[in-house]
Amino acid sequence: MITTVARRGMALFAALAAADSFLAATGRDRQRRVTKPLLMPTLMVGRDRPTRRALALGGAGDVALLGSSDAAFMAGLGSFLAGHVAWIVALRRRGTGGALRARPALAAPYLAAFGGLNAYLWRRTGSDRIPVVVYSTALLAMSLVALDSGSPKTAAGGALFLTSDTLLALEKFGGVHLPMHEGLVMATYTAAQALLADEQPWL
Predict the structure, then answer these.
(1) pLDDT tens digit string along 144-198?
(2) Which candidate, 42, 88, 91, 138, has a CA 20 to 30 Å from the CA of 159?
(3) pLDDT at res. 202
């Protein structure tokens, strides 16, 4: 059955995500050229078209960010920006929502994180300032749509995506580097994508 195939795909994704997060944490970038490009295609198995589109854009961003040049970073930023828009569309198509209308205060931590991060990075992003603000706005919107869904799993996915990209931005522009920083980025990112995708029915 397709459902069984999708479940096996999720199990394989979990193994790949754990391996890639470990490789990232230990600085084994060469080996990640095998694991990282496989992450999103594996997670796409059995999903509907809007979810596959969002994951495919994430996969394109993953491949772009294997490069170290500014052009590679901007290509990755663009792919993930489009991916957040695709996630908003996919989440809205599920037909759920209304959690924020019922409890608008739930958005306060997200707005505070958005404002605080952009204030901290404003003078540090230089010529990338406007792209970073545009990207972070799309990220905030996606995470709020996930929160509005009313699904704890989907909301957690949105929050983890916000966390992952915040860690990435702090390292890239803010000079903040935690122990095993890249591993933390990948662990939160892969968990976010899995949680967002897993609410979608298997087809």
Answers:
(1) 999 999 999 999 999 999 999 999 999 999 988 889 999 999 999 999 999 999 8
(2) 42
(3) 40
Here the tokens at position 80 are 């993930």
Mean pLDDT of 106-124: 95
Between helix 70-93 and helix 152-174 the angle, nearest 10°, is: 160
Neighbouring C-beta atoms of residue 80, cutoff 10 Å: 26
Distance of CA 120 to the CA centre of its chain: 21
Helix 129-148 × helix 108-121 angle, to 10°: 170
Q: Are the beta carbons of 144 and 158 closer than 8 angstroms?
A: yes
Can you tell me the distance from the alpha carbon of 56 to that of 157, in angstroms, rounded to the nearest whole number? 17
Domain boundaries, the chain: 2-198
Radius of gyration of the CA atoms of the chain, in A? 16
Establish how many alpha carbons lie within 13 A of residue 173's alpha carbon, considering only the half-sphere containing its beta carbon.
23
Element of type H or E holding 102? helix 99-102
Neighbours of 179 (CB within 10 A): 7
Cα–Cα nearest to 148, from 87, 81, 96, 192: 96
